[in-house]
Amino acid sequence: MELNLAVRAFELLLGFSLALQCIEYLRIPALDRVNDWAILRSEIPERPRGVRALLDVLLTARNYRVLIVLRLALAIGLMSGGLGLAGSLLLFAIALVLLLRWRGAFNGGSDFMTLVGLTGLLIAHLAGTFKGMDFGWRAGLWYITLQSLTSYFMSGWVKLLHASWRSGRALPQFLDTGIYGPLPSNSLYRQPWLARTISWTFTVWEGLFPLALLDVRLAALFCAVASVFHFLVFRFFGLNRFFWAWMTTYPAILWCAGQPMS
Amino acid sequence: MTAFTLITLVLVGVYFMWLAFFGLRRHRHLVQGPWLFFFRAFFPNWKFYHAAGKAPRLYVRAQGPYGVWGDWQRVYARMPWRAGHVLHNPVVNLALNHQNLVDHLWSDVQDLPEGGDIRERATYQLVTRLAHEAVRGGHWGDVPMLPAASPDAPHFQFELRMDALLENERVPASSELVLQSPVLATWN
């Protein structure tokens, strides 16, 4: 994959993922009567002084909305390919404010991977400012790739260390907890042999994901399976943001996989 | 293969070897401190759904007009699936965020220092609001938080329990009480 193509695909996917998140963020205040900033602010450390006061200003209902609309506009700018260093810095800064607004994460891992994408974008523009954009994007894409591969590697092997995953018992238990669950009592996933087969297949595939770097065709296969995997996670657990956040990293993986042997 | 390529591959290999030997070990509270808590997204452990067994769950009950307490009911979101949710899913994401609060309250109870008061924690106060919202007939989108809410209840109470993920007839195989709130007055 050419560097320019990888960068364009990454910008489009990250921008799209951010835009979807923003549209959800704009809807949430009308739905949520629990996450009250008056309570949340008490957790913000008093030092350095002024941070809490600044957040009080930034996170009034109106200003929070303005912040999200600004983030949406930047996401669209990113998709159009016209976002430079200033825009990347602004997106990164808004991400930090959102981490503080939502106790470190609104939606767990998807926020973490979104931050990986934004950090990669910032690395690309910062490094690019000093050493040229080619160098900047290489650094940014490698950062994103290593983080994405690490996420699969850790997620796979940590499961294989647990007897409940090796035996397949964990799979129907977790699927039963899914927001679109529980599984029907006669679900095929309750068959021990099938649960064991699926568990081993996905956990070994996750654990071996770093091998994607050896060949771009292998990387394409790993990423294709990953897309199906994340869609299934969405199907059972409702984690739509995970689907898009991880998809964002695939252009970087495909580009990096094309590098070592060239 | 050039020397640069070889060095890159070796470095990547060493990194994943290091992860295998160090990163996979259990580290409780590797990231500590309030700022690090807020910015833990910079140090993700990527351990999703790894340990089956038990999980924290919120239960609530409401007092009726004659002082009679209703049954304990679990506050746990179940939604109908829609393919379009892959593009826009605020209700489900909010419900998942609420369950995260319950998980974090459990974590705060475990970490409470000797003589500490859990009621001072933001998680306790937020979960109190969640319990209140459920009792008073709150919804996640179109889905009620409870099968039987009590919008006029003068008082309510909540419990944090560790439920077994394994269920028989939709009832957890085990359920351990972790925390019981005092009787709380409802508010408008």
In short:
With 262 residues, chain A is mostly helical. Chain A contains 13 helices and no strands. With 188 residues, chain B is α+β, with helices and mostly antiparallel strands.
Helix and strand topology:
The complex is a heterodimer of chains A (262) and B (188).
Chain A: H1 3-31, H2 37-40, H3 51-58, H4 61-80, H5 85-101, H6 109-131, H7 133-160, H8 163-166, H9 170-177, H10 192-207, H11 216-237, H12 240-247, H13 250-257
Helix pairs in contact in A: 1-4, 1-6, 1-12, 1-13, 4-5, 5-6, 6-7, 6-12, 7-10, 7-13, 11-12, 11-13
Chain B: H1 3-23, H2 34-38, E1 54-63, E2 73-75, H3 90-111, H4 122-135, E3 139-140, E4 143-144, E5 155-164, E6 167-168, E7 171-172, E8 175-180, E9 184-185
Antiparallel strand pairs in B: 1-2, 1-5, 3-4, 5-8, 5-9, 6-7
Helix pairs in contact in B: 3-4
How would you explain this protein's 3D organization?
The complex is a heterodimer of chains A (262) and B (188). By secondary structure, chain A is mainly α. Chain A has one domain (3-257). Chain A has 13 helices and no strands. Chain B has 188 residues and is an alpha+beta fold. Helices cover 33% and strands 21% of the residues of chain B. In chain B, helix 3 (90-111) packs across helix 4. The longest helix of chain B has 22 residues, at 90-111. The model of chain B has no long low-confidence stretch (mean pLDDT 91). Chains A and B meet through helix 1, helix 5, helix 6, helix 7 and helix 9 of A and helix 1, helix 2, helix 3 and helix 4 of B.
Which labels suit this protein?
heterodimer, A: 262 residues, mainly alpha, B: 188 residues, alpha+beta, five-stranded antiparallel β-sheet, two-stranded antiparallel ribbon, 4 helices, 33% helix
